[in-house]
Design brief:
It is built from 11 helices and 14 strands. With 369 residues, it is an alpha/beta fold. The chain starts with 9 loop residues before the first strand and ends with a strand.
Length: 369
Amino acid sequence: MGTAVASPLTVVAYYYPWYGESGRTWDLGYARGLLDPPEAPALGEYASDDPAVIAQHYAWAQEYGVDVFACSWSGPGSFGDRTIRDGLLPSPARGPTQIALLYESLQRLGLGADARIHLDDAAIGKLVSDFDYIARTYFPDPAYYRIDGRPVVVLYASRIYRGPVVQAIQAIRDRVELVYGVDPYLIGDEVSWTSAPDPTRIRLFDAITGYTPYDKSQPAGWPTSTRYEEAVARRTEEFQAVARAEHVAFVPDALPGFDDLGIRPAQGHHVLPRSVGPAADPASVFEASLEQARRFIDPALGLLAVTSWNEWFEDSQIEPTAPAPPATGPVSVTGGYPFASYGFSLLEVLARFKVAWEVPARGSPAKAV
């Protein structure tokens, strides 16, 4: 056995710059805001473009080990676009934290009646136009995140693109390289719970990921009972194996829980609780998710995604909560699971994981100790 040596790990957290009067308002319904008693963000129901909020987010990211905010981007001139461009990037508090974009495919390209994104001529035209704007507006900024000098964009829900997908991705690359002399590093959100890995799709990207290891097709219940982590591992292994065969990098994802009943009650999704079992710690699902993701981190890339920094509408955030008593309901929001105000515990779990990260010599899998 070789001696374990330290190796850098880059943590990317999905970041939502849409909160505030001109963006998404908190009263749309986020699970913790509907609890009895409610559990608010530590910063309150903030505006994403508030410089003090941005500064605090950067301070926490730097303290607890988040290197990159992959920011939700829903189009030129949107509230989020302005917040990223005029608030996050030029913030004097940014320090070493970098910015990438999460391209919001559903919002930009539309969803068909079959719950798929159909890439007709109009959709491909919008993709190319959007990437032209992104390349012009964001890629020149030295704070924009790059891999091997190439600016990174994550294509959300690329797994449900249908139609001439090959031509669409090539059209993005051709336009950006022709006009700006840059080949973007494209990460496809390709890990699917309902479709097998497709090499012809996977090879279009520089890396693939799964935005979240939650899916409504999974059985409801405590993760220890449903064997949730084992199911996630099997599916992840399938996609990673095909990615390796196609010489495409893989980016695993860690998730602390999921609950969108507040904003999408009609969808009837089940809650993924933050505890693995009824007596477990409320950070235990995140701990287990990080530990499992560790197995799939590409040693040549060293990249881990976290869903999410602050997607409060789906209750996947690791952003701290304000102190509050344990919630007693309502069941229509909690799914019958206990909800505890977790404070900074999830950020602390992430910080410990990152500090413990090691890559053993001779190419054996990375391990956390």
